[in-house]
Amino acid sequence: MDGRARFVTGTDFFDAKGAISIADIAALTSARVVADGRDCGDAAIVGVASVDEAHPGELTFYDNRRYAGALALCRATACFLREADLRFLPHNVIGLVTERPQQAMALAMAELYPEAMAPASLFGGAGVSPSALVHPEARLEPGVVVDPGASIGPFAEIGSDTVIGSHAVIGPHVKIGRGCRIGPHVSVTHAFIGNRVIIHAGARLGQDGFGFTPVSKGYLKTPQLARVIVQDDVEIGANTTIDRGALRDTVVGQGSKIDNLVQIGHNVTVGRGCVIAAQAGIAGSCEIGDFVQIGGQAAIAGHIVIGEGAGVAAKAGVMRDIPAFSRYGGAPARPLRRFLRGEALLTRLSRRISDKNDKKN
């Protein structure tokens, strides 16, 4: 082994479902085929790879001028790219012209490798494993898969075509919809989960929120009495934690995507279609509007409102509300252009000071 993983037919982890013609890929992605007069009717795709590693029979994409050198040497059968980049494409490679090469590549990969779209049972089993612990008062619809070592508490309800991974813990009265994937070692308590939700390994949903009231001799714990509500088509990354609410539910809106190692505090509302990158932390009682983007390691203080469509840069420290459709960065966070101008000014000042010191020496 050379240490490099390549996604081709017969790979160790994902097999392509079969060859796909160039015409079918073009139809799927609405791409225009450019073959310099060659007949590509018999050309077929059996795998995918990066532009610098692709071989005949494989599909790739080009979306960044940084890789122009790799494209010039590309050996793939076909490549998604923009019209303006056709001049860089080798003659032997079929062009698939689209304004969104990466998006087209994702569609083609999903068609070739449908099993890679969501975690499956690690044991390839069907039904409930003999070593799983399912309470007799839990209700599982037909088609639920429960891997070895998983535990499902009383009165839990799980919809059809859902997979519960090995050693996952599903608490009492939890409701999980249909077509979900609950990864290994996930714990879900005090929560209602919608349909087609993916929760990756090690995530924790529904545990106590960080609720403490200062008193004369320390801190008084506040009971956390509400739930976590996860709406349809949400994806939650590995080792992410979402605390249940104290007096109102913690909610993650439909279609939102949450990366690994994210902390979402109690009473938080995350809107629809949001994207939250790794290691971001959202303190209690925040309201995140629809289609907000939050960068990695951003920290958002409690009771903050972030308006619809806003963007928060990586490592930002958000201490006050952010208006809709604005972009903020820095710590404390401020409008992104102001933050960038300040950083540029600091850089110029530091260079001047450094130049003066050099002259003195």
From TrEMBL:
Domain of life: Bacteria
GO MF annotations in UniProt: N-acyltransferase activity; UDP-3-O-[(3R)-3-hydroxyacyl]-glucosamine N-acyltransferase activity
A GO CC term attached to the entry: membrane
Known pathway: Bacterial outer membrane biogenesis; LPS lipid A biosynthesis
CDD domains per UniProt: LbH_LpxD
GO biological process, one term: lipid A biosynthetic process
Keywords on record: Acyltransferase, Lipid A biosynthesis, Lipid biosynthesis, Lipid metabolism, Repeat, Transferase
Keyword Acyltransferase appears in the UniProt entry: yes
UniProt catalytic activity: a UDP-3-O-[(3R)-3-hydroxyacyl]-alpha-D-glucosamine + a (3R)-hydroxyacyl-[ACP] = a UDP-2-N,3-O-bis[(3R)-3-hydroxyacyl]-alpha-D-glucosamine + holo-[ACP] + H(+)
InterPro entries xrefs: Hexapep, Hexapep_transf_CS, LpxD, Trimer_LpxA-like_sf, UDP_GlcNAc_AcTrfase_non-rep
Active site positions, chain numbering: H266 (proton acceptor)
Pfam families referenced in this protein's UniProt entry, alphabetically: Hexapep (PF00132), LpxD (PF04613)
Residues in UDP-3-O-[3-hydroxymyristoyl] glucosamine N-acyltransferase non-repeat region domain copies: 42-109
Entry EC no(s): 2.3.1.191
PANTHER family in alphabetical order: UDP-3-O-ACYLGLUCOSAMINE N-ACYLTRANSFERASE (PTHR43378), UDP-3-O-ACYLGLUCOSAMINE N-ACYLTRANSFERASE 1, MITOCHONDRIAL-RELATED (PTHR43378:SF2)
Function statement: Catalyzes the N-acylation of UDP-3-O-acylglucosamine using 3-hydroxyacyl-ACP as the acyl donor. Is involved in the biosynthesis of lipid A, a phosphorylated glycolipid that anchors the lipopolysaccharide to the outer membrane of the cell.
Stated family: Belongs to the transferase hexapeptide repeat family. LpxD subfamily.
Quaternary context: Homotrimer.
Record-given protein name: UDP-3-O-acylglucosamine N-acyltransferase
Organism: Methylocystis heyeri
